[in-house]
Amino acid sequence: MAEMLKLQLPDLIEMQRRGDRIAVVTAYDAPSARLADEAGIDIILVGDSAAMTVLGHDSTLPVTVDEMLVLTRAVTRAVRRAIVVADMPFGSFQVSDAAAVQNAVRFAKEASADAVKIEGAGPSLGRARAIIEAGIAVMGHVGLTPQSVTKLGGYKAQGRLADDALKIVEDAIALERAGCFAVVLEAMPAPVAERISELLTVPTIGIGAGAACDGQVLVWHDLLGLSRGHIAKFVKQYAHLGGEIAAALSAYVSDVRQERFPAAEHTYAMPEAERARFESLAPKPGGGITERARS
To answer: Could you state, in order of their start, the residue ranges of all structural domains in the chain?
Structure first.
């Protein structure tokens, strides 16, 4: 296999200029990251969605920096080509510029992330500037921002009303001006995302934001049919692996119960002479231990 050249952030601008759509997916471990990388994914986002998809929480809020660092390290170990972006979890950048920079540095230094992502604009603009000034690339995120889902009234599309849509446009522009290399547009009407994509000079990455964005992102578990419960309107499931995995595990349980596994082809043999010697020397059930076994 030919060696894959590592993508750099300027490559995304060149893809945008050519009209080549940018493929983004979340991943949280080395096997998944390797598969995504080999498939040609351009950006792997180690999303704080791991709180729900991997760690079993009901929202993204509980996941910690240390937990995200473990996941990000796993991904970066496996990736050769894709740009790896680490999601900064709730509480890691909201407190102060200094705390934001300190945590972003950890993702770059301890986990080898190429960039970090922060949600929202407003106070987050100062955080983004501070992180960028520290030499770490930042991806912005507007629209539905899961870390603020309570304030937003739940997981629902944003910008349906004109004034709300204008605010999202202003926020996206402000994030570009702060120095973000790309902006995620989540769960908003397509015309709003299209106007933002026309106005910004950096790539827009859509998730539930229509086809006019420069790229698209989906969550690994949603894309592959591993999620349970409600599936968002914007998700396209390219496989239904959850059902296949469940069937495989059920078959395994049945084979173990019925003593069909392991079969002869799954076991290791011994040369007959060695087996005979072993059986002559090994302790017998209910018997004593041989002198050789004692020594």
So the answer is: 9-223
Q: Look at residue 55 and tell me whether its pLDDT is greater than 60.
A: yes
Q: How far apart are CA 207 and CA 200, in angstroms?
A: 17
CB within 8 Å of 23: residues ≥ 6 apart: 40, 41, 42, 43, 215, 216
CB 6 within 8 A of CB 37: no
Question: What values do phi and psi take at 219, rounded to 5?
Answer: -80, 135
Percent of the chain's residues with pLDDT above 70 = 93
Instruction: Mark whether 186 is an active-site residue.
Output: yes
3-state secondary structure 259-281: CCCCCHHHCCCCCHHHHHHHHHH
Query: Of 186, 194, 198, 265, which residue is the catalytic one?
Result: 186
- pLDDT of the residue at 170: 97
Tell me the CATH number for domain 9-223: 3.20.20.60
**Whole-number Å distance between alpha carbons of 97 and 105:** 12
Quick one: pLDDT at residue 286?
A: 83
Answer yes or no: pTM beyond 0.90: yes
Strands 22-26 and 215-218: parallel
- Please tell me the predicted confidence (pLDDT) of residue 229: 82
